[in-house]
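Here's a chain:
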Amino acid sequence: MAEEVAGAPAGPRDTFVSVNNDTSCSLHPGRRTTGAAAGAFLPILGMYQSPPEARAGHVHVPPLKTARPA
């Protein structure tokens, strides 16, 4: 644990201050995922990859086939 601060009152610590972000279980977007979390989530994300056109930022929708009067 962390060392006690001189002059700090004895009692329960503030949980928001004492949380260590490196050991917390929450995942933050943009943060590098390592260890077991990476092994668990990366294969799942790979199953839902979109086609290359969608990743490029534009999708070509095929024209609708409509019945034309003869």
